[in-house]
């Protein structure tokens, strides 16, 4: 796969924008399960340990977590999701305007434009109160519970013909609208009596970047082995938590790559900034912000400061995670 995009990716087909050749491209190894047949029948706790083990190769981590998804993943509990405590404090968010050119120089090869990065400006200080953030994004298994219980009709378009993907039970749900994410959080809050909601944009960035404002959840240098983006070549969602090297400073998984995540906020300029009009603001000047990058996009979207949003195309793989 190559990534030299001289045109706006939104003017290209999804496949061309992903840098894929015309012919077949394999993602994970074809012998993913035959090479890991010894995992069949392993205890769930042992499979969890393998899925989270930084020393285990990615294909084996994925195989272990996929088997977990089929037999019952103990990490996934719809009504008691694993939550991480995020301490409060004054934090600096956003990007200094003088750094826009450097970001574009780094990522211009994949079609990144200055106006997209200008949305991150200016850097500013704000106070974020202590809160809790789900360790994993909402999964297909979780979302199925919501649909069955409520009869809601927000079927993910990633579920072919609306059929539940049993083999992707512990993968993040994606291709749902912001209204579905809001409704899910409200439903879970009502069912549990807990104040579940989507994180604010400030909360999300702080949880991903930490006090030191990291460029990516793990640090300042991009590393395709730490997340699920195009560069890694998986070309599909992965079970949650199989990139332990990519955890945020607070121990939150999948904040870079796999699927983008809606936050609670509509797009608006930061204090002291200006409205940036681009393809996402053409139809609606204010759209729901998404963060974190995905398996369909390059690593630029996995930057902790990157502000993005939904567009009606399959390449926009967006899900959500909960805060409370």
Distance between the termini: 40 Å
Oligomeric form of this entry? Answer: single chain
Query: What is the radius of gyration computed over CA atoms, rounded to a whole number of angstroms?
Result: 19 Å
Number of strands: 8
Mean pLDDT: 94
- Strands of the largest sheet, in order across it? 7-6-5-8
Helix content: 10-25%
Task: Summarize the structure in words.
This protein is an alpha+beta fold. It has helices spanning 14-17, 44-51, 58-71, 100-107, 114-118, 140-150, 178-192, 201-209, and strands at residues 83-86, 89-93, 124-128, 131-134, 260-266, 288-291, 308-309, 318-320. The strands form three sheets. A four-stranded mixed sheet has the order 7-6-5-8. The termini are far apart. The mean pLDDT is 94.
What key phrases describe this protein's structure?
SUMF_dom; 10% strand; 324 residues; 8 strands; four-stranded mixed beta sheet; 8 helices; alpha+beta; two-stranded antiparallel ribbon
Give the helix/strand layout:
Elements: H1 14-17, H2 44-51, H3 58-71, E1 83-86, E2 89-93, H4 100-107, H5 114-118, E3 124-128, E4 131-134, H6 140-150, H7 178-192, H8 201-209, E5 260-266, E6 288-291, E7 308-309, E8 318-320
Parallel strand pairs: 5-8
Antiparallel strand pairs: 1-4, 2-3, 5-6, 6-7
Protein name: Formylglycine-generating enzyme family protein
Organism: Nonomuraea guangzhouensis
Domain Sulfatase-modifying factor enzyme-like: 81-323
């Amino acid at each position: 796969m190559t990534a030299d995009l001289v045109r706006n990716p939104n003017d290209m087909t999804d496949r061309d924008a992903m840098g894929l050749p015309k012919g077949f491209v394999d993602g994970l190894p074809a012998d993913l399960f035959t090479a890991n047949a010894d995992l069949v029948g392993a205890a769930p706790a042992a499979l969890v340990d393998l899925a989270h083990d930084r020393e285990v190769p990615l294909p084996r981590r994925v195989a272990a977590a996929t088997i977990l998804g089929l037999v019952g993943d103990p990490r996934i509990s719809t009504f008691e999701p694993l939550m991480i405590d995020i301490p409060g404090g004054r934090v600096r968010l956003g990007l200094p305007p003088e750094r826009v050119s450097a970001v574009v120089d780094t990522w211009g090869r994949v079609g990144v434009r200055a106006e997209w990065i200008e949305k991150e400006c200016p850097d500013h200080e704000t106070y974020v109160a202590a809160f809790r953030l789900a360790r994993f994004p909402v999964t297909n298994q979780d979302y199925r519970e919501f649909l069955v219980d409520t009869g809601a009709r927000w079927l993910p378009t990633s579920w072919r013909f609306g059929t539940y993907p049993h083999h992707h039970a512990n993968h993040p749900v994606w291709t749902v609208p912001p209204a579905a994410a809001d409704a899910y959080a409200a439903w879970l809050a009502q069912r549990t009596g807990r104040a579940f909601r989507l994180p604010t944009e400030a909360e999300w960035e702080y949880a991903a970047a930490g006090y030191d404002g990291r460029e990516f959840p793990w640090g300042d240098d991009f590393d395709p082995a730490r997340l699920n983006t195009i560069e890694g070549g998986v070309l599909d969602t992965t079970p949650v938590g199989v990139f332990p090297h990519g955890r945020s400073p607070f121990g939150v998984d999948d904040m870079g790559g796999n699927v983008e995540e809606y936050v609670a906020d509509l797009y608006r300029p930061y204090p002291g900034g200006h409205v940036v009009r681009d393809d996402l603001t053409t139809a609606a000047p204010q759209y729901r912000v998404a963060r974190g990058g995905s398996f369909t996009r390059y690593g630029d979207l996995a930057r902790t400061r990157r502000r993005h949003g939904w567009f009606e195309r399959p390449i926009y793989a967006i899900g959500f995670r909960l805060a409370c």
